[in-house]
């Protein structure tokens, strides 16, 4: 199926917007959860530090999505780190909580 170039461009921008908003949020949330579990400090302090760090992760994710050469590369730059962080979170979570 051949799409009009203008329509293809709009789909690519919409895909990047979804990757930036939803994917960036998911990546930041996963990073915050992992840091909250992994940081060696009091639990309340670890959650606060992880939450503050997640804002930086979200901003970097948004910058990455719109700086990537293609929409596929933008999605890969969100999904792959998110999957790795999620896997690390699953490995660090105690079995009683999972």
Tell me what the structure shows.
There is one protein chain. This protein is 83% helix and 0% strand. The chain has helices spanning 5-38, 43-67, 71-92. α2 packs antiparallel against α3.
Largest sheet, strands/sense/barrel:
none
Q: Which stretches are low in confidence, meaning pLDDT under 50 for 5 or more residues running?
A: none
The helix/strand series, from N terminus to C terminus, equals HHH
Tally of DSSP helical segments: 3
Provide the gyration radius in Å. Answer: 16 Å
Percentage of residues in DSSP E strands: under 5%
Would you tell me the overall average pLDDT? 93
Roughly how much helix do the residues carry, as a percent range? Answer: over 70%
What general outline do the C-alpha atoms trace? elongated
Q: Roughly how many Å apart are the termini?
A: 44 Å
Total count of strands: 0
State the secondary-structure class: mainly alpha
Index terms:
98 residues, mainly alpha, 3 helices
Chain-wise SSE layout:
Layout: H1 5-38, H2 43-67, H3 71-92
Quick synopsis:
This protein is mostly helical. It has helices at residues 5-38, 43-67, 71-92.
């Amino acid at each position: 199926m051949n799409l009009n170039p203008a329509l293809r461009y709009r789909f690519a921008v919409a895909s990047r917007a979804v990757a930036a908003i939803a994917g960036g949020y998911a990546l930041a949330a996963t990073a915050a959860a992992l840091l909250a579990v992994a940081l060696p400090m009091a639990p309340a302090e670890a959650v606060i530090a992880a939450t503050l760090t997640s804002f930086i992760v979200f901003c970097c994710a948004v910058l990455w999505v719109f700086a990537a050469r293609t929409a596929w590369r933008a999605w890969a730059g969100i999904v792959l780190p998110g999957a790795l962080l999620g896997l690390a979170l699953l490995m660090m979570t105690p079995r009683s909580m999972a």
